[in-house]
Design brief:
The complex is a heterodimer of chains A (223) and B (228). Chain A is mainly α and 223 residues long. Chain A has one domain. In chain A, 80% of the residues lie in helices and 0% in strands. Chain B has one domain. Chain B is 79% helix and 0% strand. Chain B is globular. The chains are: A mainly alpha (223), B mainly alpha (228). Chains A and B meet through helix 7, helix 8 and helix 9 of A and helix 4, helix 5 and helix 6 of B.
């Protein structure tokens, strides 16, 4: 537990000092929202029809940027080797990485929601807190698999940034579908209804990815 | 030791695969009805589609098993087996998509139906395993490559589970779930499944033998380097 907290504190302190991930994800999310806003003519297309997809594409790709930077500290020098030599459980390292990346992605997603509200002007009846909760639930699953893959792809030729997306995006499509289905209803101001079945599904995918990551991370980082 | 492709068991396997395919074709032609209600004779492609779909799931599962073995016991042979199983699984998945798409055109009038959960989930699974090959080709160090690919083959099983539960999760059933109650169709389906299983196992054996031969060549090259 001490190792977990130490790594989490270090990652969050570095991010608070440099704000590299936060800025790159935030700027990317803002640019994506603007591109979508220019691409869709809201006089012809209903805002509530496109908003869920815009929201999830923005969140997913912004989170991928966060993931590709998640091992930036460890890639410099022999930091990872030092971390592995320390008497810290590998699962603690993995979970600390997931949580520290989650903290940054969660802030960017909240800002992206605000941006969506300003640019796409969906009906005011929507429930932003429920929407944010579902987005964070899906993000936990996404990062569960993402941190595992990010630890692998940093050893790939040419940095592995593209490889990370290729490995991760197909496996996150179920999360994406669930997110779009639920958020469409919430943005319309409707109760979840049939889409409520996606909430336990998102939780189940998250639990599976986090469990697999916790078990397999040790095999990925061993030298 | 003789290379595995020159062993008598391999020849017997090849003969068995050919006999299985002939038996499946005979069943399709003579045992199963040539047409059924609503979808006519286009349903006959099902006897190629279904065995390939099941085959892809079986071989991706085998790949994960070999991957788990590799993580547990190490060694390059289990990694080669895992990679070979993914390749055969991918081939079966592509056959599934092509036959499924052809059937969709004949039965529903469209090559692709976006709201069919099964079609969608098989496509997601196929793309997931295409990533496996990219991972193999972009990690140079053999030991790391084996470990990473083994890990990925296990995580990618989630996409296989998604195929299984897609209809429950997405709740839209345009795919025929229990289409054919006729016993002759069930019999033909089982024969076709067995025939394709034997055929895909044969392809797996060929690919695995090639991979092992590549490892042996690599070893020889290394020994020649050491002797220099």
């Amino acid at each position: 537990m001490r190792g977990f907290l130490a790594i989490l504190r270090r990652d969050l302190a570095l991010e608070a000092r440099r704000r590299e991930s936060l800025l790159s994800m935030g700027v990317f999310a803002a640019a994506t929202l603007f591109v979508f806003r220019f691409a869709f003519d809201l006089h012809k297309v209903e805002s509530v029809t496109v908003s869920p997809a815009v929201l999830w594409v923005t969140a997913l790709f912004a989170a991928t940027i966060g993931l590709s930077r998640s091992f930036a500290v460890e890639s410099a020098g022999e930091v990872m080797a030092g971390l592995l030599l320390a008497p810290v459980d590998r699962t603690a390292i993995y979970l600390a990485k997931v949580l520290s990346t989650f903290a940054v992605v969660a802030v960017v997603e909240a800002a992206a929601f605000l941006g969506l509200f300003l640019l796409f002007d969906p009906p005011e009846v929507w429930d932003p807190l429920a929407l944010l909760g579902i987005a964070w639930l899906a993000t936990a699953g996404f990062l569960g698999a993402g941190i595992l893959f990010a630890a692998m792809t940093r050893h790939a030729r040419s940095g592995g940034g593209t490889l990370l997306q290729i490995l991760l995006l197909p496996l996150s499509i179920p999360l994406f579908i669930g997110g779009v289905q639920t958020s469409e209803r919430l943005i319309r101001g409707l109760p979840l209804g049939d889409a409520a079945k996606w909430v336990p599904m998102l939780a189940a995918f998250g639990a599976i990815y986090l469990a697999l990551g916790s078990v397999l991370f040790e095999r990925v980082v061993e030298e | 030791m003789r290379p595995s492709l020159h062993r008598p068991t391999f020849a017997a396997h090849a003969v068995l695969a050919a006999a299985g395919i002939v038996a499946a074709l005979w069943h399709i032609w003579k045992v199963a009805p040539l047409e059924i209600d609503q979808i006519g004779s286009s349903y006959l492609i099902f006897f190629f589609h279904f065995p390939s779909a099941v085959g892809s799931l079986e071989f991706f599962f085998l790949a994960a098993l070999c991957g788990a073995w590799n993580l547990w016991k190490r060694g390059r042979v289990s990694d080669a087996a895992s990679a070979s199983a993914v390749e055969v699984g991918l081939l079966a998945a592509v056959v599934t998509l092509v036959t499924g798409s052809t059937w969709a055109k004949a039965a529903w009038g469209h090559w692709w139906v976006w709201d069919d959960p099964r079609l969608l989930s098989v496509a997601i699974m196929t793309i997931t395993y295409l990533g496996y090959h990219l991972l193999r080709s972009l990690v140079d160090e053999p030991e790391k490559r084996a470990r990473f690919c083994s890990v990925f083959s296990i995580v990618a099983l989630v996409s296989v589970g998604f195929v299984h539960y897609a209809i429950k999760l997405l709740g839209k059933v345009s795919h025929p779930m229990k289409p054919f109650q006729d016993p002759s169709i069930t019999q033909t389906r089982i024969v076709a499944w067995l025939a394709f299983l034997v055929l895909y196992l044969l392809l797996f054996r060929i690919r695995f033998a090639q991979a092992r031969a590549a490892l042996a060549i690599e070893d020889l090259r290394q020994r020649a380097e050491d002797l220099r």
